[in-house]
Structure formats: structure tokens, C-alpha cells
């Protein structure tokens, strides 16, 4: 916002104010400023912009370029010291702010065999999207889930969570968090937990048994707006996409695209973060699309090309790219391709802010 203001001020686009007449107002501005007052007319159009002014820019992280840095980080710092060994995916338009888009955090976390990442909890909600390795676990609110590539895992707001890798290979996942939304409202709390692990109080698979098969226990009471399912396994998602593609007409803008939902409410799985998985069949070329939810994509399978605004990205498995707000995107799938994505759409929909355009 500040950046947009400054840029607009430089180009004289903040307002309709006559720059020549401004000279005679400087004394007033000085005295008003001393009373913590400022003239709106100098900043109005920078505050209420004609269209979205995303600070983030289109960007592609090739996993092959990123991975060596993750491995090197393992030699430099332990999970104990780091708490979470994560390299933040910093949008080049928003350097130093730990943002993949204006509103979303994105990072790649690596955990080696035998390591644990200590328990803590925070108001910010997190998603994990598993990229590499298999059979490490995360424990959330006393229940473990074993994670495999393509799984979408949720850490709901204010739930204790710790991670561990008892497999024989490194594990890497994408972390997506909403802490910038939480911080916008100064609503963040965080708490550490003494010890390496939080006690397990439920058997693995408990959440899935309760809510994973379109059944709920009689008398079930939702504790929050977050989905009670905290691991959406990739084999189920992939099968659904495959079956869909055999009988449903394809969407010209999105291919075969599914939302991850909270089965209790039908709403988004995480109340602040919209998450989707889409299948783009080989040869599919999407029609141009734009929306106000800046979106981060993770390539799960396949290869393709995306034109995002004026940028052109060639992507393959594990690559990550960003589509900024109100920036036109067109995807072309060179092979059958599967893309995971997340954005602040869940918030924008609830607040009636979302706009989209299908060209
Ligand atoms: O794994 O708990 O990338 O709390 C940032 C904050 C990961 C986590 C992040 C976190 C975590
Ligand atoms: Fe955390």
C-alpha cells in the first residue's frame, strides 16, 4: 500500500490536486501534521486505487535451483536451533517481507531422517503441501499423520504441532501460512511447548475415520471453522481428478479443478486460505483468466507453460510459481499436468471482495 502510494505520488496520480497550488498549502500541512492530521486529498487515489496494485510480481522458482540450498541449509543449522528449517519463498516484488504474495507466506521446509521439529502453536493457520520424500509425520492436536508427496495437510489455528522424520530420506514440503492476514489485524499469539514432542492422544487415522468418508459421528460438534480432516491424501485427490476427467466437460479456464472443502460446512478447508487441485490434460490450453486473489501454484505432475502477465514460465514437477492479483494467466499442458494452488480467496469471498474475469 505504501509502495503504491509513493509510486503514485511520484507520478502525480494520487489525486486531482493542482501541484502549483500546493506551494501555498505547505505551511498548513506542516501545522496540521504537528496535530497528527494529514490531508486526504494528497493521497486519496493511492489509497482507493482504480484497480488492484499488487506488490507481488509473477515469479517462478525452479525446484532444481532451490533444492541445493535446502540441502546446504541442513549442514548449517539444526531443526532444534531453527525451530523450523525453512527457506522463505520471497516474492521479488516484496523483498524482505516473507511474502510469496501480498497476503500469503510461502516457504520450503526440510527435515532429515532422525530429526524432529519441536511443538508449538500459533493463531496463524498453516497448510503443508508435500513435495519430496515420504513417511515423515506431522502431529496436530495429539494425532499424527504420515505424509506422502501430493498430500495436503492442515495445521488449524492454535493447535499444537510438531514434525518428525522417521523415514530414511529427507522430506520437503511447502508451508503456506496466513500470518500476514493475522498480523494485519494484530491478532497473533504464539506459544512454545517444553519437550521434543507433544503427547499423542488419538490414534493415527482418527480424524479421517470421523470425517473422511462423508460420515460424521452422531453428536459431532465442530470446534472451529477449519476442516476436521487434516490430511487430504494425494491418491484420493488424484483418483477423483482422473475420474472427473472421464465424464465431465472440461472448464475452459481452469481445466478440471477441485476445491478442498471442510466436509462439515462445504466451505474452504481452511477459513483463511483457499486451496485447490487442478488437472490440465495433455494439450489443454486454458483461456485467459484473472482474479483478485494472488495465487501460488505448485506443480505436482507433468510439464507445461504458463503466461502470467508479461512473464512466461516453463514448469515441471515441484516448481512453484505466482500469479499476482488481476494479472492474466494462461496455462498450456504439454503432458497431463496437476497443479496445487493456494490463495486468500477464502477471505475475499467472505468479505465480498473477490473479482474475477474470464476472457
Ligand atoms: O512448521 O510450524 O514455514 O510455524 C512457518 C511457521 C512453518 C511450522 C513455517 C511455522 C511453521
Ligand atoms: Fe507452526
How would you concisely characterize the structure shown here?
With 359 residues, the protein is an alpha+beta fold. It is 21% helix and 30% strand.
Task: Give an overview in words.
This protein is α+β, with helices and mostly antiparallel strands and 359 residues long. It has two domains: 2-47, no CATH class; 59-358, Jelly Rolls (Sandwich), CATH 2.60.120. It has helices at residues 2-10, 19-22, 26-34, 44-47, 63-76, 79-82, 179-184, 206-211, 234-247, 345-350, and strands at 59-61, 86-88, 105-111, 116-122, 126-132, 136-140, 143-147, 152-155, 161-164, 171-177, 190-192, 231-232, 256-259, 274-280, 289-291, 295-301, 304-308, 311-315, 320-323, 329-333, 337-343, 356-358. It has a six-stranded antiparallel β-sheet with strand order 1-19-16-21-14-13. β6 (136-140) and β7 (143-147) form a beta hairpin. 37% of the residues are buried. Mean pLDDT is 95; it is low at 1-12.
